[in-house]
User: What shape does this take?
Amino acid sequence: MRSVQVSKAKGPLEIVERDIPEPGARQVRIKVQACGVCHSDSFTKEGLFPGIQYPRVPGHEIAGVIDEVGKDVNHWELGKDVNHWELGQRVAVGWHGGHCGHCESCRRGDFATCNYAQVPGISYDGGYADYMIAPIETLASIPEQLSAVEAAPLMCAGITTFNALRNSGARAGDVVAIFGMGGLGHLGIQFASKMGFNTVAIGRARDKEEELMKNLGARQYIDNKSQNAVEELNKLGGAKVILSTVPSGKAMTEILGGLAANGKLVVIGASDEPIQVPTFLMILGRRSLVGWPSGTSIDSQDTLSFSVLSGVRSMNEVFPLERAAEAYDHMMSGKAKFRCVLTTGN
Assistant: This one.
């Protein structure tokens, strides 16, 4: 099979031939049809995540079909045989690539914050390949209404924005601002609008971006380059939630003043810059700042189902697997509109 691997930290993406892997007892082999190219793939490419063993195949936005099942996959029953995963079934795998089951978070059922959580493409080989192996606890079933290319980006960009918004505490009609109009932001706009929020998009006016974001569901667009976003939000009474997708601690610091009383900045954009929190702003208005990880496989399932029900779709640029390095560079340049997806031809 073909795999696109990184042989060492900061090394190039190179396509190699490998033997097709065999699944373990509670794993499945997936014939990959599509894999999203996510900014977090830079963790593998640049060696930014602790403990990565090289060579490593990146990719954690995976969509395909089950090609083989491990011997114990369909025998974890209570009193009878329950067949949950079978050959030919369409499945997807996201950031949550497995959990230990015995740490305190897992014992409380909070698998997304497992102390020993695994990530495809970081902890083990991911979806930049013709085949990959995944534990059964990572699998989500792909609805027939979604193609593999449509499903793949929903496994990280989709679930992260959807899950953060539905757990944000915002209610229908509340002002919810989506800060940043990239791969995460364009999905956040759609989810927020379909959830019934008074959705405000905050971006930097790329080509016809205002018109596009309003077409995706934003009721108002704030150009953060020519307008004061905090002032514009306060004209609306402040935002109940600001979903921050930007990879800039400085930008997140500056937007805090746009929160309403009891408002919440929800951080899903990773940055190596600190967020500086003005204490009186937070105390006097009971404002808060929280982070949100993606979610587990059932959250992925919910994301796919909601996307079908509501018509939310990622806007993608599609590349064949052999052009993975080009797709990665295009994504990292910030010029992608809005997600890059690799296809294998399987």
About this structure: The longest strand covers residues 27-37. The chain has a mean pLDDT of 95. The first helix runs from residue 42 to 46. The two ends are 11 Å apart (CA to CA).
